[in-house]
Design brief:
Elements: H1 14-27, H2 32-35, H3 41-56, H4 63-76, H5 80-90, H6 97-105, H7 114-128, H8 135-143, H9 148-170, H10 177-180
């Protein structure tokens, strides 16, 4: 559900129908953030390719770290849709409610274990003050064992979630408990 027209699964044809079928097969259902792209199937396909590369592709960043980045960027941007979606995925990796709450509110990040703390504080800074970034910000990440490829992946994920947060908030994409849970391959 959003503020713009969306093409439902039963109404889709052509490339959109194929994309919906593939998503349903792989993920079990179609998220609202993807359905909002239905008027532009080419953009939907490109969005999916980028998402899958950044969140599931080969990287020195763990899946947990990637989901934590998603949650912190989204919390910083006050994007409830993405915070809730990615916190649900993050629960597969983090069993501690205090840590989850810190990430979901982007508060107390400096108290997390050092590597995760540096990763998500970099994400928060790049989201709130991109003009204040300096080369020394990378030094803190390298000190925690991140390679330049890992830093690139981190930066791409931050940029991606700033992008997708603006789609969700700009188009009024909503979530429900049913839509948020039960995806395959989280």
């Amino acid at each position: 559900m959003s503020w713009i027209q969306e093409i439902e699964v039963g109404e889709a044809d052509g490339i959109l129908e194929e994309t919906y079928a593939e998503l349903t097969k792989k993920r079990g259902k179609i998220s609202n953030i993807l359905k909002v792209h239905s008027l532009n199937p080419a953009a939907l396909g490109n969005h999916l390719d980028l998402y899958m590369t950044l969140m599931f592709g080969k990287s020195g960043l763990s899946r947990m770290e990637r989901e934590a980045i998603a949650v912190v960027v989204s919390a910083t941007n006050e994007c409830d849709y993405c915070v809730n979606h990615h916190a649900e995925s993050l629960r597969h990796f983090i069993d501690d409610e205090d840590t989850l709450n810190m990430l979901m509110t982007a508060d107390g990040l400096e108290t997390l274990e050092p590597r995760l703390s540096n990763v998500v504080r970099y994400a928060e800074k790049l989201t709130t003050a991109p003009g204040a970034m300096t080369e020394s910000d990378l030094g803190e990440l390298r000190a925690e064992g991140l390679s330049d490829k890992d830093i690139l992946d981190l930066t791409l994920i931050v940029g991606y979630f700033n992008f997708v947060n603006r789609i969700a908030m700009g188009l009024g994409v909503e979530f429900s408990a049913e839509e948020m849970s039960g995806y395959l391959n989280d």
